[in-house]
Amino acid sequence: MQQQTPTGGSRATPLDAIVARVVHVERGEVAALVLSFAYFFLVLAAYYIIRPVRDEMAVAVGREHLQTLFVIVFFVMLAAVPLYGWVTSRFAKRRVVPLVYGFFITNLVVFWTLLAGDGHTRIVASIFFVWASVFNLFVVSLFWIVMSDIYDSGQAKRLYGFIAAGGTAGAMAGPIITQSLVRWIGPDNLLLVSALLLAMALIAALLLRRLAPGHGDAAGSDRPVGKGILEGAVRVWRSPYLFRIALWILLGNLVSTFFYLEQTRIVGETLTDRTARVELFARLDLAVSVLTILTQLFITGRVLERFGVGVAAATLPAWCAIGLVALAVSPTLAVIVSVMAIERAIAFALASPAVKVLYTVVDPQEKYKAQNFIDTVVYRGGDAASGWVFNSLGKGLGLTGGIIALTAVPAAIWWFYLSFSLARDLDRKASGDQKSKVDAADRNVAR
User: Fold this and answer.
1) CA distances from 59 to 187, 277, 281 (A)
2) What residues contact 314, with CB distance under 8 A and at least 6 apart?
3) Among 148, 265, 333, 338, which residue's CB has the most CB atoms within a 10 Å radius?
């Protein structure tokens, strides 16, 4: 998105002044920034309303069956990505968000119908868990694809922290809505509330596209992105830069899935009441959201601008290494809740915005296809692989949770190193892009 220069007679609005106090933003960027904030707010509010329902269903299914569900999620992703690739190859970019979000809104209504009455069987719970895992990744991935389509790397470093705060605000609103309504309308009717918020997110996305015509890659929104339905996977395999991003995500999921499996086991052993478990997960989500939004509003942009993407991304593997050792020493409810709360806050506030900046220097096909492939198939592939690995270590070799936690520490160290390696690649690519723009400008002047 090219920065707009205000006309000589224009004056800053009160909104400009308020936003400028929190984030380093140019006046011509304020409207798009605020709408991006609102868009992400609605997306994550929609998801976090149903997340406690999904987590409760995971407990109902049982930890011993989660490995199978993670594998199923991975294969569902393998089937969904070619379908998504077909959509992006056939339809204009501006139609991709309405088609994908419209599909998931319809799904929410269908699940609301299935779960009504006596629909809470283990099969339906398993299907919903798989679907919610796919839903989360696709709607969030598509949001960040739109962001990388609109903002360049310099803007992303300044603005992504504030934009991510919109998602965190939505993640705070979701649990609040859930806790307020779950005993009044019941868990099942929360799905309709989520569908309404996702529809509002769709409207925000359409307005943002209208607000930013002619900016960056958004100018080509009337054109489909490439032809191959598997182009994303091909791009990731052929590009060392994208391959290392995929590896960063894979290593991160290896560790974070272990935390999730331990959370499921420990919560299931400690709390037996379904409503109590939903309330615990909702309180955890709310605590994470408060910590995250404070970091995003006042720290993320400053860290990215001053210390760079490498430092911001590396905070997550550093904390996870500490968390693995802590769980090895004391695998209790208090420890797992504390480790996961801080891990998720760092992921949302620092690591995720940092990784999303990495995509601002790639071409449209890599944004719409390779980024989606990494965010979905690679991400859930990590779930499937790590679930299989850790369950095999536990059941096959008889290792305790503490020993298994220690075996994941080397993965966290490798993950830490990749953070700085990718940051160096980003700087080189961004410098190359800037040089190309200057050379092109010089050639135009010469003509």
Assistant:
1) 15, 9, 11
2) 416, 419, 420
3) 148
Q: Is residue 372 assigned to a domain?
A: yes
The amino acid at 143: F
Residue 52 contacts residue 278 (beta carbons within 8 Å): yes
Tell me the whole-structure pTM to 2 decimals: 0.72
Number of domains in the chain: 1
Q: Residues 2, 215: contact at Cβ < 8 Å?
A: yes
- Judge whether 170 lies within some domain: yes
Q: Measuring CA to CA, which residue among 155, 148, 157 is closest to residue 308? A: 157
Q: Any residues with CB less than 8 A from the CB of 21 and at least 6 apart, and which? A: none
CATH of the domain at 325: 1.20.1250.20
Q: Residue 399: count other Cβ atoms within 10 Å of its Cβ.
A: 16
- Domain of residue 363, residue span: 24-429
Contact yes or no for 376/77 (Cβ under 8 A): yes
CA pseudo-torsion sign 415, 420, 425, 429: positive
Residue 19 lies in a domain: no
Which tens digits make up the pLDDT trace of 108-127?
998 888 877 665 667 777 88
